[in-house]
UniProtKB/TrEMBL annotation:
<feature type="transmembrane region" description="Helical">
    <location>
        <begin position="116"/>
        <end position="140"/>
    </location>
</feature>
<dbReference type="GO" id="GO:0008654">
    <property type="term" value="P:phospholipid biosynthetic process"/>
</dbReference>
<dbReference type="InterPro" id="IPR000462">
    <property type="entry name" value="CDP-OH_P_trans"/>
</dbReference>
<protein>
    <recommendedName>
        <fullName>CDP-alcohol phosphatidyltransferase</fullName>
    </recommendedName>
</protein>
<dbReference type="Pfam" id="PF01066">
    <property type="entry name" value="CDP-OH_P_transf"/>
</dbReference>
<feature type="transmembrane region" description="Helical">
    <location>
        <begin position="21"/>
        <end position="43"/>
    </location>
</feature>
<dbReference type="GO" id="GO:0016020">
    <property type="term" value="C:membrane"/>
</dbReference>
<dbReference type="InterPro" id="IPR043130">
    <property type="entry name" value="CDP-OH_PTrfase_TM_dom"/>
</dbReference>
<feature type="transmembrane region" description="Helical">
    <location>
        <begin position="152"/>
        <end position="169"/>
    </location>
</feature>
<dbReference type="GO" id="GO:0016780">
    <property type="term" value="F:phosphotransferase activity, for other substituted phosphate groups"/>
</dbReference>
<keyword id="KW-0812">Transmembrane</keyword>
<keyword id="KW-0472">Membrane</keyword>
<feature type="transmembrane region" description="Helical">
    <location>
        <begin position="55"/>
        <end position="77"/>
    </location>
</feature>
<keyword id="KW-1133">Transmembrane helix</keyword>
Amino acid sequence: MASIYDLKPKFQALLRPFCGRLAGAGVTANQVTLIACGLSLAHGAAHLMNPGAKWVLALLPLILFLRMALNAIDGMLAREFGQASKLGAILNELTDVISDAALYLPFVFIPGLPASLVVVAVTLGIIAEMTGVVAVQIGASRRYDGPFGKSDRAFFFGALALLLVFFEAGWWSTVLMAFACALGAATIVNRARSALKEVSHADT
């Protein structure tokens, strides 16, 4: 199923020259991974201290874009500059779910936004990433199938944040959060099915 993640190769191509300069300066993939996570934690802390503040919400799309760029850079540093490591693989997966929780869970404190649906959406996102990782344990590749992968969740919450800058939360935001939950559940099922299908084809 289509996902914003499919655009990643083109985004990486734009970042590759900058990535090369970072590698030349001695910057490591793990450092970039931790910086991306730290950025997410800092924004999450700002949101917790200023629940629903317009400036915090307006800043979220920029933070998400920077996080996406840093995630692309750490991957290229690992793969293309010989920096891949077991520690890096662990950090990459753990910091992704930590960053998601830090960036999105503070939405529960926004008046009018259904806190329960926010928690469900974030939880489903974590389970979706776990499903993608578990695929490796059964002999499939790491699954990134949509429709609500990491990049898609970032787009959704970034757009929601901008809408909340200009409009008060209400029925429309409840509908959007319910839709996000449905997409999250579909992503879990889709990744599990794709992994099982991949393994079954490999066995034939």
